[in-house]
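User: Reviewer 2 asked us to show a designed sequence for the structure in our supplementary figure. I'm pasting the structure tokens here. Could you produce the per-position amino acids so we can include them in the response letter?
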């Protein structure tokens, strides 16, 4: 998935759950350079295109760990 088009009511964590299966990865979406102009949205209207950066399984796993467990 390279991009996602929002439906009314989407939030960053809902989009992360749809794209990655994990709402805790919303920060990956928000930190992506192509999404910087969208940071003012808390709740999206329909029709906004969000860039979905690719992440590896290792990145996904490490994001679920508390800070003290990360390398």
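Assistant: Here is a per-position design you can include in the supplement:
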């Amino acid at each position: 998935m390279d991009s996602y088009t929002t439906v009314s009511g989407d939030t960053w964590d809902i989009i992360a759950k749809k794209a990655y299966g994990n709402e805790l990865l919303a920060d990956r979406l928000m930190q992506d350079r192509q999404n910087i102009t969208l940071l003012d949205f808390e709740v999206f209207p329909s029709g906004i295109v969000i860039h979905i950066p690719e992440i590896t399984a290792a990145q996904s796993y490490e994001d679920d760990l508390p800070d003290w467990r990360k390398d």
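For the response letter, you might also mention the following. Residues 12-20 form the longest helix (9 residues). The chain has one domain: 3-65.
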